[in-house]
Amino acid sequence: MLNTSFSHSNLQLCLSPFLTLTFNRALAEGFPPQWTMKTVARIHKGEDPMDPNKYKTIIIGHMLAKLYGAIMEAELNNYMETLSLRALEHADFRRAFSTIDHIFTLRCLIDETKAPKKK
Fold first, then answer.
1. Sign of CA dihedral 102, 104, 110, 113
2. Please, is 89 exposed, middle or buried when counting C-beta atoms within 10 Å of its C-beta (0-12, 13-18, 19+)?
3. Are 62 and 35 spatial neighbours (Cβ–Cβ below 8 Å)?
4. For 25-29, which contacts have Cβ atoms below 8 Å and span 24 or more sequence positions?
5. Backbone dihedral angles phi then psi of residue 19, each to the nearest 5 degrees
6. What's 83's DSSP letter?
7. pTM to 2 decimals?
8. What is the per-residue pLDDT across 31-40, written as a single tens digit (0 to 9) for each?
C-alpha cells in the first residue's frame, strides 16, 4: 500500500535537496525564463460586468520564483537584523514594528516643530 500521508517534516526532507539544487543553480546560471513570466488576470467581483471598478487585478507568476523570493527576503531580513544594518526609521515590514510606530514618530516630529524655540 502506498503511504499518502504528507507531514511537514516528510515534505521538507523530500523537497529540500531539490529546492537547494534548483535555487543554487539559478543563482549561478541565472533564472530560467519561465520564472520571469507573469500573467495578468482580471477577476470579476460581482454586480455589473461592464463596470471596470468591479474587477480585481491579480498577477500570476511561477511558484518556484515566488518561493525563491520569499526565502531570499527572509535570509536578507535575518542578515540585516542580526548585524543591525537597518536604520531604526525603516520600520515597515519588520517584526516588532507597526504603522503605529511611524505615526508616533511623525507626531513627535510635528510637535517638535510646533514647540516654541528656546533662546
1. negative
2. exposed
3. yes
4. 26/68
5. -65, -40
6. T
7. 0.61
8. 899 999 999 9
